[in-house]
Amino acid sequence: MFETTTHATPQHPAAMQRSQLLIIDLLRHACRRHPQQKIVSRRLEGDIHSYTYVDCYQRSCQLAHALTELGVQPGDNIASLAWNTYRHVELYYGVSGIGAVLHTVNPRLFAEQISWIINDAKDTWLFVDLSFIDLVTEITSQLSSIKGIIVLADSAHQPALTKVAQQVLNYEQLIQPQPNQFDWPALHEDSAALLCYTSGTTGNPKGVLNSHRAMVLHAQATVSHELLDLRSDSVLMPMVAMYHAGAWGAPYAAPLAGCKLVLPGAGMSGEAMYELISEQQVTLGLGVPTIWLTLHNYLAEQQASVPSLQRVCVGGAASPLGLVKTFAERYNIYWQPIWGMTETGPLACSAPPEPELMALPKEQRYAIQTTAGRACFGVDMIIVDADGKPLPHDGESSGELRVRGPWIAASYYQREDPEVFVDGWLATGDIAVIDPQGYMKVVDRKKDVIKSGGEWISSLEIENICSQHPAVNESCVIGVKHPKWDERPLLLVVPKANTELNKQDIYQFLQDRIAKWWLPDDILIVTELPHTGTGKLVKNELRRQYQYYLMEQSS
Amino acid sequence: MFETTTHATPQHPAAMQRSQLLIIDLLRHACRRHPQQKIVSRRLEGDIHSYTYVDCYQRSCQLAHALTELGVQPGDNIASLAWNTYRHVELYYGVSGIGAVLHTVNPRLFAEQISWIINDAKDTWLFVDLSFIDLVTEITSQLSSIKGIIVLADSAHQPALTKVAQQVLNYEQLIQPQPNQFDWPALHEDSAALLCYTSGTTGNPKGVLNSHRAMVLHAQATVSHELLDLRSDSVLMPMVAMYHAGAWGAPYAAPLAGCKLVLPGAGMSGEAMYELISEQQVTLGLGVPTIWLTLHNYLAEQQASVPSLQRVCVGGAASPLGLVKTFAERYNIYWQPIWGMTETGPLACSAPPEPELMALPKEQRYAIQTTAGRACFGVDMIIVDADGKPLPHDGESSGELRVRGPWIAASYYQREDPEVFVDGWLATGDIAVIDPQGYMKVVDRKKDVIKSGGEWISSLEIENICSQHPAVNESCVIGVKHPKWDERPLLLVVPKANTELNKQDIYQFLQDRIAKWWLPDDILIVTELPHTGTGKLVKNELRRQYQYYLMEQSS
Ligand SMILES: Nc1ncnc2c1ncn2[C@@H]1O[C@H](COP(=O)(O)O)[C@@H](O)[C@H]1O
């Protein structure tokens, strides 16, 4: 499915209008169909801001005029360092609408990585939220292509920025005098629109350059019942950042569906989430497992609940059975797993609450909710062995996952990577199984797989089982050097607040649940584990730190 | 929105995979996601046939092999004269899948028109249902390009066809020996896939040549909540024919959604419909108003009901308020208006039961259900005056409707028509108003508008009001010659069975409901009105017949 064509033009063409799939039309559609629907944002200024899709569109038009006046040309890269707020949404539409490219930079990276990325992309203007002013001040002298910095605030909130080399402008001042209609260019749909770098755990970050076509088709899939099933009465709160894989396309999908969009700004605490969900009657949240663990911890502590919340869509990491259950049984919230990566739109798979699934016995359903789901229309998936030979979808064979489709990257920006882009497929680096119903499960990252005596041990599987222990808050399994077996698993555990936990408890718990040879060679009780800015475990760091741990123990 | 581009390639390309939107992937998607879902058909052989999407796919593969063996080449046109059954669905996939073009011929046309169309398209093979064998025998000597006739039956049901000049083959025999997997070509998505002639009331029929891309994007829109809102637990019964505008795309949309597809074959009677709806638990029907009137008449007569049926999607003609109400209040069925034409995919507009609509007072909602609905994502709409100048969407101004989008025709097949294809828009020939919420209402066909003393009278509007009279079964207003006003309206009315109805009743009913100068100059009570094969009134014929009626009366 979704094979790539080698024909530049059709051999036997039909006679359809050459209308293009362009990002700006997602917002124009919201304006004609749901003009009064709201975008609600927690601002960096501290308050809650609310306006309509028509307001958003008019300000995106003003931004387009302002960019044109600044001399921005089609194809120029424009950087943002910003949270999820309405101004960032305006950048998503205004910048791409004129044929320029919005480059959403991840502010959680190291300062050197950030300036490296901005220089690599040759970004010409940088839009920045108030909370990243210090960061920008720190890196300003490194930025070789940036002509000016635009602070996402009104002039009353504009800081001095005396130590910045480039010219500094104010966002509200910039757009305020501009007309609120714009004559958008009729671009080709394969034009570049959104640039996202993915922060590999090794080597330099790599850019994924998304097209208008890809983002529109991705938005249509996202709205469909195979992914988020968004409707005009949904209230969508993306906790995943607009600087990380386009907030999973939420800023594009929400206006297409005409649903209310609730943007958390910098408010990532349990309390801030609870407030916004309750006040805005959020029905659907998007985020990594850690975010929903944070919400759960807050709710448990406060004995609070969020009755409006019907579903959380959870990706970026595997869904632990413990949380799936807790959300179902304690909160009546459907935990909907999602799989994707920056290179894949990002959304590609999910397990939405389809009637057939909901009809299954509870435990069977929960098990499916810990998979990564099934591919939506637009994505083809295979698993291959080490030689690239396709493996059966039998729920047993595991191999590297390859994906293909109209919103999957065909190469990195300005970079070759023949290991990732193979025979018209994207090699994901995820080791997965696919069952006969099409449910895919990531059993490991290619580099996280533990190879013990030539056999594979899934670190994720052990972590999943650990997560079901009542006193475990988080756990991490890494492969470390072993004199005999080459690699053996080492388990690190963070206990829940105010609980007692020791090695023996965990061994006892694991003993009945996993094969003997999978039992970690040692267990360490720790107070915390390192995470990336987007909430993923940084296993590389732990691997480095504990690399020789077993060697030292045994010597 | 949805402007057509003049760029052949993007100026600043992104780096996405060149995966194409191809029709065959709709069915392949159903196979991996809903392999056991059913297609149920009333066969021409008389029985009910049921099989799965996997069966359908495997037989489409067999058909593709058979076509290849027959020497069918990409770009060849292959004709069908067939009802809605699973074999016709296999033609939709097998023929287009190999890059050939399925030409669905309307068997209800006059025999000369049918042979004219088949010759015009230079169709090479003709697939024909048992009920059209006589028709084929009649026209066989006229068919200059047809190499052979394939009867859609098994060999036990194959008739002799001795008077046919071309070779005659049997469908089941043809495909049976073939392998059930096929290596589909990676076509360009702009390739031709489906050819539908639209039978204009004047002049020769004109072909619309649809692309793979258009049909896939149309299917995605169709499945979305803006049009049919199809899900895996929907049971869809298209009463609209697969030879008429692709059964509104139902054969493409159903596998995409994974819903059960129920195909009525030649069973168009109230009884046949009732049987299929009840046995298959149909939730959603597609068809012209006449079809639902037929169902209602049957149910009323039999004192029967169809509790599974939740919605009927109704297009091809305006939705009469009387039926909207009856379906809501008597059957609890939502009457969902749809607008489209062969040149527009066909689906472009609808008024689905969105939460905001359902929250309105009943009478307001009914009023909206008599509009043609709002444009879905993918379709832009304007109304223009006689000079092509855009008119406001104020719910008052009426002008010719123009539409634009990726599944709208850019020209007729092998024909120029500068009056229809204007400035990148399709001029629809419908006179419409659009209100500020985006609801469009066809107030007339350009050629049905009555021009009385330089002012326009809407024949449709008068017909709509008539339909609310309890004793009126059907009505028709035409403009006929008048010595003073140039044209004046004449009303023809078919009373309901077993009811008394006279001119004066109707005049009284109309008096309070329309402007005085709109009142028809005369009213004729008739026993029936002429319809096209697809259930539309043939006003041209009536106009011809009654052209001088008022002249003769007044003289
Ligand atoms: N549902 C999931 N289950 C397991 N791993 C996931 C899931 N979703 C995302 N990931 C991981 O996150 C990676 C993508 O990271 P990123 O590009 O930063 O979004 C994938 O390649 C997976 O390794």
From TrEMBL, chains A, B:
GO molecular-function terms, A-Z: ligase activity, forming carbon-sulfur bonds
Family per record: Belongs to the ATP-dependent AMP-binding enzyme family.
Pfam families: AMP-binding, AMP-binding_C
Protein name, UniProt field: Fatty-acyl-CoA synthase
The organism of origin for this protein: Pseudidiomarina maritima
Ranges of residues in domain AMP-dependent synthetase/ligase: 28-413
Keywords: Ligase
Domain of life: Bacteria
Residue span(s) of domain AMP-binding enzyme C-terminal: 461-536
